[in-house]
Amino acid sequence: MSLLPYGLVELPFWGYFLVTFLTIETMFLGVTLYLHRDQSHGGLILHPALRHLFRFWLWFSSGAVTKEWVAVHRSHHAHADQPGDPHSPVVFGLRTVVFEGAELYRAAARDPQLLRTYGRGTPDDWLERNLYSRYAYSGIVVFVLAHLILFGIPGIIMIAVHLAAQPFFAGGVINGLGHAIGYRSFEMPSRATNLVPWAVLLGGEELHNNHHAFPRSARFAVQRWEIDIGWLWIRLFHAFGLARIRWVAPRPHLERRRRELDAETVSALFINRMHVLRDYGRRVVLPVCRELARREGQGALPPSTPALLIRHPAVLADEPRRKLRELLEKYEVLRCVVEYRDSLQQLWNENPARALAQLREWCRRAEESGIAALREFAEGLPAYARG
């Protein structure tokens, strides 16, 4: 068979699509399982054979160097959406990150100080020194030649789609849109969002807010209705002894009959602190806002009031911050709700013995605050238990 126009392998249209889809998905799987969950954060330990398989495929299909990727990503977490973040849309602008994210990544990866500070613990064996890092883009050359030989002219389109996928989706969509649009399950200084609850196309990376809330977690899905396709692969590899799970994000374990605040309660609240803050927003902030709106009359409260109260102050722009300040000055009940939330967060900075005494005092004051939603929330705290 002639090498042109179809190369050694002639496929129907859907066949070329399927091959391209599988090469891209395998690349994303290597990024999320090997580079991200294993190398960057250590919540997952892959079998050495599986590690090398992903390391080879990433070199072959994307030119990714483990130390560079890990260092840039750890730097992102260390300075999330602050000066020093190598690819934050807050710092560089959303358009720049979406369409020039790969250039931002390469600029950060050329910084030797960043590599020394954040690239520790990555592979430094003979292959890494003499092939993968030394000839980072040689793998892509072989990848391109293989596609041209196997698929001929259709391979040109397959190559273009494949090589554009990681810079755009991983660099632009996750690092850009994943800090701009979507929903937030957990509030934190970072603006990270979950793009969709069913993260199946980008290896689970779409659940970006969950990851920033629990960076070490090998499982990105936290709510029971969320799907992390990377976690399904991890479970499969674990079943065959090819992966070891070190840590996953907690899911609250509630024992409704518990009524006593004790050391176990403090420990459970610390473990589940992100969930506790999320519950505070749903069970205290929202009911208080609804009751205040009913009492003040339609239109008295801006529709954005609950979001302003729930959102972490560090991610509010100047205008929303001004609106929040005006609301807190005008309505004592809203100021009280915010103060109780902030004082609850402070308990997690105390030693367990002191935190227990302060938690009991916090609950006593909350129950006497005259705010029904706050009293009910305080009464429910003893239900948190270590699962």
Can you offer a commentary on this structure?
The chain has 387 residues and is mostly helical. It has two domains: 13-245, no CATH class; 263-385, no CATH class. Helices cover 60% and strands 4% of the residues. The protein has 18 helices and six strands. The chain has helices spanning 13-40, 48-61, 66-78, 89-92, 94-109, 112-118, 126-132, 138-151, 153-174, 208-213, 229-239, 263-271, 273-296, 305-310, 318-330, 332-346, 352-367, 372-380; strands at residues 44-46, 198-199, 227-228, 243-245, 253-254, 384-385. The strands form three sheets. A two-stranded antiparallel sheet has the order 1-4. Strands 2-3 form a two-stranded parallel sheet. Strands 5-6 form a two-stranded antiparallel ribbon. Helix 10 links the parallel strand 2 and strand 3 (227-228). The protein starts with 12 loop residues before the first helix and ends with a strand. 39% of the residues are buried. The mean pLDDT is 93.
